[in-house]
Design a protein that fits this description.
By secondary structure, the chain is α+β, with helices and mostly antiparallel strands. The chain has helices at about 10-45, 95, 130-145, 170-195, 200-215, 215-280, 290-320, 380-385, 480, 485-495, 525-600; strands at about 50, 55-60, 65-75, 75-90, 100-110, 115, 325-330, 340, 350-365, 370-380, 390-395, 405-410, 420-430, 435, 440-445, 445-455, 460-470, 475, 500-510, 515-520.
Length: about 600
């Protein structure tokens, strides 16, 4: 008897269903926890600081994720959070998920707070992580590139000797860098001029014009005149083409000279920093008003710019411009793990994209809290998206001390000129006390108006920091003040009579050769009193510091300026000369062309000129 054919083998299907059920239960129980842990670890590594989440819930049916209790610690202060968010709702586009890509259609936040105290100190970031290395690099950049004058001195010692090492001077480094640029500009100009072959063209055209001038149309005949006219026209066409190329070379050369002049300005700025450095070795205070501002507020000013540069570098690392391959550690294997390289494709989803997001906060009995923010275009591959990432926020956080906030950020990492820019203004914020390096007192700005601007375009940096307060208070270390020097005592007497504070710092130059100008309403008042006290001795010491720097870099800078001037003068003389030679020989050829055409017009119909 033939057994009936079984469709299902229940002994096999049963265990499979059981294991499938177990997997579903495990997913429902542990998926949110695993996703929360991975999110915390990924953000912590990317930002170089501890990131905590109170909860994370995945809503599979809605293709959405709910997060709560987000805390991002300050990488420079483990006892403070940069940002806290009560709840975050993320709506995902389900189609890109099939390609293991995250595209966020909408993101909503609530319960935002900034610069709050942590209950427990944040865990230190891995110093060998990319973010940890960038933090150390930017902190070292601030230490290496800026040396602010000091005011805390008991005496002015103008007789002290000064020995400088050329390798210590920023002018030497800037000059060496510019020398290479000058040489490459000269080589490029000479090569461009040689490629034009102006001299051979002028010689051959001149010889042709002379030969045509000696020719007799009657003896040449019809065929000879036609050949002569063709030769003349071809020579004139070559001259016109050479003139166009010469004009392009002239434009390129003028742009290069502009870059060289900017380089000379950077060298001069480096020389000014070396003067300050030499004064520091002599322990000389600087009592010029601009240097007073740098001495008092230089350190806190550069601290803000250093933080902005750190986050800009973080952004550049994780959002590279162009269609760059994405390198990441490969999977663990018995043999060497290696590196996985993902090459992006045009007209495809980026690996990560936040199309848009909004924050709309209105709270309080009288809705005194108003805060709105919108952001979008945030992606890991901006060249694919083709639009800049933007963030704009404004609002008023009320209470006993209302705070007004205006904030805008733009990041364009595609096209020929990638750029990151930030503009912020805060009204009514209580700033922490500002300590003055080397002085036994500090200023508490109280409720202040703060403005900040920062731009990073390639290697060029530009920014400003401003603070204004009308209710400052001054605090001194009484024990140190009793033994303060005459200089410190005078400064204390000047500042204690002031209730207003105005500070402005301006950053410029390049990352490798930055410049910083700091000014305040304290500068001139302090400078006048101190110059009257120690003006003569101070002038002697400052002159000694300047002479020491000039003895090492004066000839080198002068020679560099001469090289730039010679190159510019040579180009500005040669290019018009070459053009005039081409114009002259073209004029001769056109004269002969008209003569031959006119002479032969009676016996041969020729094309019009």
């Amino acid at each position: 008897m033939k057994r009936p054919r079984k469709i299902f083998r229940w002994r096999a299907v049963g265990p499979l269903l059981f294991f499938g059920l177990v997997l579903v239960v495990l997913y429902l129980v542990f998926a949110d926890r695993i996703a929360q842990h991975e999110t915390e670890a990924t953000l912590s590594e990317a930002l170089g600081t501890e990131v905590d989440l109170a909860s994370l819930r995945i809503r599979e049916t809605d293709a959405a994720v709910d997060l709560a209790g987000l805390q991002i610690a300050d990488p420079r202060n483990p006892n403070r959070n940069l940002l806290e968010a009560g709840t975050i709702t993320i709506d995902l586009d389900p189609v890109p998920l099939a390609e293991k890509k995250i595209v966020i259609d909408d993101l909503r936040l609530s319960g935002l707070r900034f610069l709050t105290a942590r209950k427990t100190p944040a865990r230190p970031a891995d110093p060998n992580s990319p973010a940890g290395k960038l933090l150390r690099e930017t902190e070292q950049w601030a230490k290496d590139k800026f040396d602010f004058p000091k005011l805390a001195l008991g005496r002015i010692d103008s007789a002290r000797s000064l020995v400088l090492n050329p390798d210590q001077l920023a002018t030497v480094k800037a000059a060496k860098s510019l020398i290479g640029t000058v040489d490459s500009t000269r080589v490029a100009f000479e090569r461009g001029l040689a490629d034009l072959q102006v001299r051979p063209l002028v010689d051959s055209s001149t010889a042709l014009a002379a030969r045509l001038a000696q020719s007799d149309p009657k003896q040449l005949g019809v065929a000879g005149v036609k050949a002569a006219l063709d030769d003349a026209r071809q020579a004139i066409d070559r001259i016109k083409q050479a003139r166009v190329k010469l004009a392009v070379l002239d434009t390129t050369a003028r742009k290069s000279f502009g870059i060289l002049q900017q380089g000379l300005q950077d060298v001069d700025a480096a020389r000014q920093r070396d003067y300050t450095f030499a004064r520091g070795l002599l322990q000389l205070p600087s009592f010029d008003a601009p240097n007073i501002g740098a001495a008092l507020f230089g350190t806190p000013s550069i601290d803000y710019f250093q933080q902005a540069l750190y986050y800009a570098r973080i952004l550049q690392r994780y959002v590279p411009p162009g269609l760059q391959p994405w390198n990441r550690p490969g999977p663990a294997r018995v043999r060497m793990a290696g590196t996985s390289v993902e090459f992006p494709k045009e007209k495809a989803y980026p690996r990560f994209l936040l199309r848009k997001g909004e924050v709309d906060l209105a709270a309080g009995a009288a809705l005194e809290h108003h805060f709105k923010a919108s952001f979008g275009g945030i992606t890991s591959q901006p060249e694919l998206y083709g639009r800049p990432a933007t963030l704009a926020a404004s609002g008023r956080l009320a209470g006993e001390r209302p705070i007004g906030i205006e904030f805008a950020l733009m990041s364009r990492h595609f096209g020929k000129a990638p750029k990151d820019s930030l503009v912020a203004a805060v009204e009514g914020v209580s700033l922490p006390a500002i300590a003055f390096p080397g002085l036994p007192f500090e200023v508490d700005p109280g409720r202040s108006r703060v403005g900040f601007r920062f731009n990073l375009a390639g290697d060029r940096i530009d920014g400003s920091w401003e603070v204004a307060s009308d209710q400052v208070t001054w605090h001194a270390d009484s024990s140190r003040l009793r033994t303060a020097s005459l200089v410190e005592g005078i400064i204390w007497k000047v500042v204690t009579g002031l209730t207003q504070l105005r500070v402005r710092a301006e950053l410029g130059g390049t990352v490798s050769n930055p410049t910083l100008k700091v000014s305040s309403n304290l500068d001139e008042a302090i400078a006048v009193r101190l110059r009257g006290l120690v003006g003569e001795e101070l002038a002697k010491g400052e002159q000694r510091a300047r002479d020491a720097v000039d003895s090492l870099v004066g000839q080198q800078v002068a020679a560099l300026q001469a090289r730039v001037s010679d190159l510019q003068a040579q180009a500005l003389q040669r290019l018009p000369l070459e053009k005039s030679q081409l114009d002259e020989v073209q004029k001769k050829l056109e004269t002969e062309l008209k003569r031959l055409a006119g002479s032969a017009a009676g016996g041969l119909k020729l094309p019009k000129l």
